[in-house]
Amino acid sequence: MKTKDPAKDTSYKSKKVISIGIVRELTGLSERQIRYYEERKLVFPERSKGGTRKYSFDDIESLMDIANKIEDGVQTYEIRQEMKKEKQQDYRSIRNKMLRGQLNARFGVQKGI
Q1: The predicted structure's pLDDT at residue 8
Q2: Where is the HTH merR-type domain (predicted)?
Q3: Rg of the Cα trace of the chain?
């Protein structure tokens, strides 16, 4: 379950435009379950000016993954910790790629040499 920065990802999958009712229909989860996962900081919908929750297709995929893990007996705390680790790994990977690029640019290293 990957988390993405919506400001940087313009993919349709990351756009928060889906109402909780549609999410409920697509996932089979109750609105209460969806809100509970939000309360447990496992999913982060945006809010419209009127306060309506808006989800993305990425959120729906995350909700399905969360529901499957909970069904398998995994606690929400463990899921949140796993999400934090994945996010840290993503940041490390991006940072390492940036550093490699800077070093390659600085020292003229060509790819494939």
Answers
A1: 54
A2: 17-85
A3: 18
Euclidean distance between the first and the last CA atom of the chain, given in angstroms as a whole number: 35
- What share of residues in the chain are helix, strand, coil (percent, to 5)? 60, 5, 35
- Strand segments, DSSP code E, in 2-100 are 18-19, 46-47, 53-55
21-45 pLDDT tens trace: 999 999 999 999 999 999 999 999 9
- Residue 101 · residue 108 · CB < 8 Å: no
CA atoms within 13 A on the CB side of 58: 19
Helix (H, G, I), strand (E, B) or coil at 23: helix
Question: Tokens standing for 13?
Answer: 């999958």
pTM of the predicted model over 0.85: no
Q: Hey, what are 45's tokens?
A: 């919908």
* CATH number for the domain whose boundaries are 12-107: 1.10.1660.10
